[in-house]
Structures are given as C-alpha cells and as structure tokens.
Specification:
By secondary structure, the chain is α/β, with parallel strands linked by helices. It folds into two domains: 156 residues, Periplasmic binding protein-like II (D-Maltodextrin-Binding Protein, domain 2, 3-Layer(aba) Sandwich), CATH 3.40.190; 138 residues, D-Maltodextrin-Binding Protein, domain 2 (3-Layer(aba) Sandwich). 33% of the residues lie in helices and 18% in strands. The chain contains twelve helices and twelve strands. Strands 1, 2, 3, 4, 5 and 12 form a six-stranded mixed beta sheet that branches. It has a six-stranded mixed beta sheet with strand order 9-8-7-10-6-11, covered by helices on one side. The longest helix has 15 residues. It is globular and about 60 Å long.
Length: 341
C-alpha cells in the first residue's frame, strides 16, 4: 500500500523511504541524518525486492532504484519517478563473473558459445558486465546463450515490459530450480553475477565455491578493476534515488533537501571506512596517500557534474544492447534542480 504524504507540524512532510543497508545509507535509515522539512518512515530492503516493489506497486515515496530499469521504464513512457543524482551503489560488475572450472573457460573470450546465467537480463549490473565483455574482450551478448532466473511475475522487466533483444538467446530458468543449482550441477557454464541473499525476487540460496567447481573468471579482481578504471576512467554506477513524480511536482523543494541529506550522510561516513578504502583500492586511487586528495578524487561521488559521462555511457550501452529504442537525455530522468550539481 502506498503511503501518501501528509502535512505534519507546519511544513513537515511525512514520507516513506526504502534503502538498501550500507555505510552510506545507514545515517538516513537510523534517523541520524534528517532531510529538512521531511519526516521519513524508513525501511531497509534488499535492492532486488525494493526495485520490483517500486516498479510494480509504487510502495514507497522515496527509494533507491535500479538506474537501468529507471532508464528503460522512462524510455517507454513511464514518468512516475524523478531521479536524484545520489549513487548509492558502484562496482566493477564484470569482475564478479563466476565460471565452472571444468568448462574450458580460461579467459573472457572463452565465454563465447557458453551457457551463462543472469538474475535479470535488464539489471544494471548485467548491462555493465556485458558492456565490459563486449568492449574490452570482444564477447557480444549474441555470442552467449543466457539463462535468466527471474520470471515476469517477480522481476523488474516484468514491470517495465521487457522483451528479449533481437538475436539474443534468453531462456527462463524454471521455478523448480535456480542459477546456483544449475551452476553447481554443471547445467550452465557460468553466471554474470550471483545473488543468493534472501528476498522475494531472487531464488538462489547455495553458497558456491571451489568445492563445487565454481571459481571467479577474474582470479585477481582488484587487478582487473584497476586496469579497467585506468583505461576508461569509469567506476560503474548501479543505483540512484527516486521520488514519486506527483510528490516532486507538488513540492519541488524535496529534490535539493533530500540530496543535501544524502550528502550529509555520505560525508559522515567518508572517513576511511572499510567500504571507502575498498573503493580506493579497486580504482587504484589508493596511490593518492594525501587524504585531501582522496576526497577530491572520490570514486563514489554524487552529483551530475562528476558523473555525467558515466550515466550517459550507461544509456549508450542500454541502447546498444537493444533494451531501449533511442537514448534519453539526463533531463528526462533527473530533477531539474539537480542538473548542475
């Protein structure tokens, strides 16, 4: 059930907000950081479930959102959401590819002709990983036979009207099994990423390791992350934050107030925490030993100005992979007030 905004104590709005639980969102979730003029009902939700609930049911007034699903939904005329340039999740997703050690896969090029799992074909992590395979290693999406775990009833694509791109072979995994079981048994040769956290959307539960012949394609993930970042300058963005458009249009000031709150939460956690240190090592920016230089070169920055090239590249990849008919402009996605942040 959608929680409608109601005026509270003069000009305060009571809004529901859903976020995944990590170092950057923790101060918002626990109420340590508040947005001016807003009183949040907070809910910690796994991203897979959160995005499905938002795209299908609009459960929350504000939430994290899959950036690719937002782009795809918007391209098809769904204008229910307005994005803010708050990027709560970034990773080098292609380094998370898992393979069977007995399938003759020794390098990314060996994925051609293989059977590869993917939780959901249109999810942002999958788009970034396929783009890296194609542009860095010459492996096209059409070179692989895909096995998708999520069915239309509980998937982001089910809510956005997903259709397989032309010439791409996508099989839907029966609900009687899942990626983990198929990978463990050798029915598929690898998986683009593996989600086995308990939630309403993802079905895999097995812990995969070398005991069941499952290994990382990139044995040295940090080395590959640094190589990719040094070559491209891209630290891929996965999630953004959205507001219901009806709320934004009724109260345009929400955009900047919420952005400021997330920036405050981010800055609180910016000290060299485990998460931030990992980002600096993954990108190779750990060579900047001066702390002020690390802040200046923050690989997990918010805002459009620092990230325009990354968002536009993602849009390009989504179009290139046949998931939207034409590229979108950032003004089609983000609140007008945030375009110069």
């Amino acid at each position: 059930m959608v929680v409608l905004s109601k005026k509270m104590n003069q000009n305060t709005l009571k809004l529901s907000i859903a976020l995944s639980e990590n170092e950057r969102t923790k101060p918002i979730l626990n109420g340590e950081v508040k947005a001016k003029g807003i009183d949040f009902f907070t809910t910690g939700v796994h991203p897979s479930e959160m995005f499905w609930r938002q795209l299908k049911f609009k459960d929350f007034d504000v939430s994290e959102m899959s950036l690719s699903s937002l782009i795809i939904a918007t391209s098809k005329g769904n204008r229910e959401w307005v994005a803010l340039p708050i990027f709560t999740s970034r990773k080098f997703f292609h380094t998370n590819i898992l393979i069977r050690s007995d399938k003759g896969i020794h390098s990314p090029g060996d994925l051609k002709g293989k059977k590869i799992g993917v939780p959901e074909y249109q999810q942002t992590a999958a788009i970034w990983a396929r783009a890296a395979l194609e542009h860095e290693f010459g492996v096209s999406p059409t070179d692989i036979e895909w096995f998708m775990e999520r069915n239309s009833g509980k998937s982001h694509g089910g809510a956005t009207g997903f259709n397989p791109p032309a010439r791409v072979r996508i099989n839907t995994i029966p609900t009687t099994t899942n990626i983990g079981e198929m990978l463990s048994s050798g029915e598929i040769d690898g998986t683009l990423l593996y989600l086995n956290n308990a939630n309403l959307v993802d079905r895999s539960q097995l812990q995969l390791n070398e005991n069941n012949k499952v290994i990382s394609l990139f044995r040295n993930k940090q080395k590959e992350s640094q190589r990719y970042f040094q070559k491209t300058g891209i630290y891929p963005i996965n999630h953004t934050v959205v507001i219901k458009r009806e709320l934004y249009e009724a109260h345009p000031w929400l955009a900047i107030n919420i952005y400021h709150a997330f920036m405050e939460a981010k800055n609180m956690m910016h000290d060299l925490t485990k998460e931030n240190l990992k980002a600096y090592f993954e990108t190779g920016l750990s060579g900047l030993f001066n702390e002020s230089a690390l802040v200046t070169n923050d690989p997990k920055s918010y805002g459009i100005l620092a990230n325009r090239h990354i968002i536009e590249l993602l849009i390009k990849y989504i179009h290139e992979q046949g998931l939207i008919s034409q590229p979108l402009a950032l003004v089609d996605l983000f609140a007008q007030q945030t375009l110069e942040l």
